[in-house]
Amino acid sequence: MEASARVIRGIPASPGLGVGPLVRLPRRVAPPADEPAPATLEDGLAEVAAALEQVAQGMEARAEGATEAAKAVMRAGALIARDPDLADLVRDRIAEGLGVTSAVAAAADSFAAQLESLGGLMAERAADVRDVRDRAVARLLGQPESGVPRLGWPFVLTADEVSPAEAATLDPALCLAIVTTGGGPTSHTAILAAQLGIPAVVGARGIETAPERVTVAVDGGRGEVEIDPSPARLEQLRTREDARKRALEGFSGRGATKDGHPVPLLANLGALAEAVRLGAWDVEGVGLFRTEFLFMDRDRAPSVGEQEAIYRRLFNGIGGLPVTVRTLDAGSDKPLRFADLGLEDNPALGQRGIRTAGKFGSLLDDQLAALAQAAERTGADVRVMAPMVATEAEAEWFAGRARARGLERVGVMVETPAAALMAGRILRQVDFISIGSNDLAQYTMAADRLRPELAGLLDPWQPAVLQLIGLAAEAAGSTGKPVGLCGEAGGDPALALVLIGLGVTSLSMAPPKIASVRAALASHDLRHCRDLAGAALAAPTPAAAKQAVLDAAAPILAALT
Ligand code: PEP
Ligand code: MG
């Protein structure tokens, strides 16, 4: 990469290269602080009703000629804008003395909160309610509605986050790429962008200071955004992207090495909406469903019934494919308000993952009961696993509780060096292990995974991390039990070869990464993967390990990475 271009690294969300001028999504307009109350309640109601009707009509107009996904979102928005319950809430707020925009905002917020408390499908409407709120507030203030700009020329969109409604209205012919500062690899933005074939990078901190309309090159597969690249650099990037696309042609179906050794390629998910879109990804199942993501906004723990309904929708949504559900991984970088043990000096080393189970009444047992009931009612092929296990005793305790509820296939994640070293003993208690390379790198290298400046230490190509993965895989191999890997490392096509060579039996990753991994595996036989693993283990640094693999791999690999 040329030193002159500024490069921002984020999370790869949707593969592909997009080059164009950077355009910022207008920030949402907030109600003014000292807004006067309307002259009369009736005046206020009439003003709000007119604004909401304009919003509804605007959304209906946008639905015309839009994609199916966008149509559904826009029509849902129009229904919300005309919802009599929302109008009643607005009436109450104006009667309390609020100005019109403050009344709409407060009414929509409590409407959204009500929907969230109902859970399931209803809770997913909350984001649409907030979108309608922002559009109505903008209308009332005489400003343009928030939403993707209609510029008539191609651009790269940047924002803190892109709402589902906004993402659904993106036109792939004009929106060349998306870069957000917020969001994760399985956020709505990421999923919708990938479905539309729009390259996207999320979690790209630093893009907010890039000047408006500067040319940016977004590599969604690598998670890189280059600001103002030179013409020569652009040429390089385009050549690389053409080669990547050509390399992917002709590979589909089940994951396997060239000599037919099967390697199930699975998806990491964290939202129900993603499950129903799995068909688009050509995957063999879900290797990690992060349940904590379902409940991040909750103050109170979801009940067994509510959880069961959610899990049933998940299992039905993935249409009979096997699914591995992880029990709540609360704490540290994924705090849950209803499972919070208070401030800690070192939260990543504190009460998180399985360490919090048993500390919040029946939280774990409720989740296991809900999963077991949902599995039984849907007939789904469900496995459960616990996060952040460090000892054989924890694995035994978890397996006992899960089996007592009728869940037959039970596993644990290997995310701590202790668990990797003790994998053989842990496997006496459980049916499978799944390596969480994100946390395994954090704990092996004693480097906070949230600190971008420690990215070099967190690199899963670090020899120490590879050694531990190798140890855990070897231990599993001697028991004949499966050892999956579900950290981000599995989505790197070169590293995927090494992992399979080390003895990992399945790979789970953000869905956009699967195509490249499938192509890489299909181009190398198992023996070759083992040789590549040996070369990586023998290298002194992460960079040397990757280079050694690229040097010894089939030429297609260079195009895929
Ligand atoms: C991991 O640690 O690698 C993992 C898959 O879990 P999470 O990223 O959710 O901590
Ligand atoms: Mg983890």
Structural features, described:
With 561 residues, the protein is α/β, with parallel strands linked by helices. 45% of the residues lie in helices and 13% in strands. It contains 23 helices and 16 strands. It has helices at residues 41-63, 68-81, 84-95, 100-118, 120-124, 126-140, 164-168, 188-196, 231-248, 272-275, 304-317, 363-378, 392-404, 417-421, 423-426, 437-445, 455-458, 463-479, 493-502, 514-522, 526-538, 542-552, 556-560, and strands at residues 6-9, 11-14, 17-24, 155-159, 175-180, 200-202, 215-219, 224-227, 265-269, 286-290, 323-326, 382-386, 409-414, 432-435, 483-485, 506-509. The longest helix has 23 residues, at 41-63. The mean pLDDT is 89. Phosphoenolpyruvate (PEP) binds at residues 288, 290, 329, 415, 436-439, 486-487.
Could you outline the blueprint of secondary structure elements for this entry?
Blueprint: E1 6-9, E2 11-14, E3 17-24, H1 41-63, H2 68-81, H3 84-95, H4 100-118, H5 120-124, H6 126-140, E4 155-159, H7 164-168, E5 175-180, H8 188-196, E6 200-202, E7 215-219, E8 224-227, H9 231-248, E9 265-269, H10 272-275, E10 286-290, H11 304-317, E11 323-326, H12 363-378, E12 382-386, H13 392-404, E13 409-414, H14 417-421, H15 423-426, E14 432-435, H16 437-445, H17 455-458, H18 463-479, E15 483-485, H19 493-502, E16 506-509, H20 514-522, H21 526-538, H22 542-552, H23 556-560
Parallel strand pairs: 3-4, 4-5, 5-6, 9-10, 9-16, 10-11, 11-12, 12-13, 13-14, 14-15, 15-16
Antiparallel strand pairs: 1-8, 2-6, 3-7, 7-8
Helix pairs in contact: 1-2, 1-3, 1-6, 2-6, 3-4, 4-6, 11-12, 19-20, 19-21, 21-22
Bound molecules: phosphoenolpyruvate and magnesium ion.
The site of magnesium ion has 5 residues, from helix 16.
